[in-house]
From TrEMBL:
The gene is ureD. InterPro entries: UreD (IPR002669). This is Urease accessory protein UreD. Required for maturation of urease via the functional incorporation of the urease nickel metallocenter. It comes from Hoeflea poritis. It holds the Pfam family UreD. UreD, UreF and UreG form a complex that acts as a GTP-hydrolysis-dependent molecular chaperone, activating the urease apoprotein by helping to assemble the nickel containing metallocenter of UreC. The UreE protein probably delivers the nickel.
Length: 287
């Protein structure tokens, strides 16, 4: 039997890490949106369930590893062809577990061509205590393309008695329309998470929050209908620039259930606006 000294002198074990890459292209053909190309490697998988929602392609992203921890890497690429419609979500909430070493990296690239519409609707990202995640989102839009983007976050599931005391999280967004920068956003949480969230300039103690962004020529006209769907801890505003018009919604909630209950009516309304009145939310988006 090996003693303590033998184990201490043994070479350090290299931990297994997840690596996944998936790319999908959707085209408009015969009045509907269909799969054109699909590539998947490692733990990153993509499925297209058959639905009767509408003419848009329903795309589901799957991380078969069951979660993400330090050192893992996932890369997603979605290309929506001319006049195509695509609604993308995830199979489940993405759980970011405690990192023994290193930072997890998730990179997403979205390209939406002329006359096309993309609804990017991943389910909630859940950060666990002492997790470490760096996320990047790059979007290229044609001048007349439309986009719905929703990114909900939960820092510890209070119903499960979880508290995130320390974590590292960065989120970088770059959205270009017709080659011009339309929207840039940076989020960084590092260190004492309860102290950061307790500030009135962040979430005033709420552990769940979400951002919804819509790029559409009628973004200004969408503000009042959206405000009618929001609760007390949310707000919406429209921004008009030479690069394009966009609507931004921010919301916070005391927990994941409260956040989803507030978020679903908003993204459902916006999704129908972009992809058609028959195009309901993916079945995975339920309460």
């Amino acid at each position: 039997m090996a003693g303590i000294a033998d184990r201490n002198n043994a070479p350090e074990q290299r931990l297994q890490r997840v690596k996944g890459t998936a790319r999908i292209s959707v085209v408009h053909l015969d009045g509907t949106s269909r799969l054109s190309r699909l590539y998947q490697e490692g733990s990153a998988k993509i499925r297209l369930p058959r639905t009767h929602n509408g003419s848009a392609a329903d795309v589901v992203l799957i991380n078969t590893s069951g979660g993400i921890t330090g050192g893992d890497r996932l890369d997603w690429t979605i290309d929506v062809g001319k006049n195509a419609r695509c609604v993308t979500t995830t199979q489940a909430c993405e759980k970011i577990y405690r990192a023994c070493a290193g930072t997890a990296h998730v990179a997403t690239t979205l390209k939406v061509h002329e006359g096309a519409a993309l609804s990017w609707l991943p389910q909630e990202t859940i950060l666990f205590d002492r997790s470490s995640l760096s996320r990047k989102l790059y979007i290229e839009l044609a001048p007349n393309a439309t986009l719905l983007l929703a990114e909900p976050m939960i820092l510890g599931r209070r119903a499960m008695g979880e508290t995130v005391r320390e974590a590292f999280f960065t989120d970088r967004w770059r959205i270009r329309r017709g080659g011009r920068l339309l929207h840039a956003e940076e989020t960084r949480l590092d260190g004492d998470i309860p102290a950061l969230l307790d500030r009135t300039t962040t979430t005033a103690g709420a552990c769940a929050f979400a951002t919804v962004l819509v790029v559409h020529k009628d973004a200004g006209d969408m503000v009042e209908p959206i405000r009618g769907l929001l609760g007390n801890n949310a707000g919406a505003s429209a921004i008009q620039t030479s690069a394009g018009n966009r609507l931004i919604v921010r919301m916070v909630a005391s927990g994941g259930f409260e956040l989803r209950r507030q978020l679903i009516p908003v993204i459902d309304w916006c999704n129908r606006k972009l992809t058609g009145t028959r195009q309901g939310l993916p079945k995975l988006w339920t309460i």
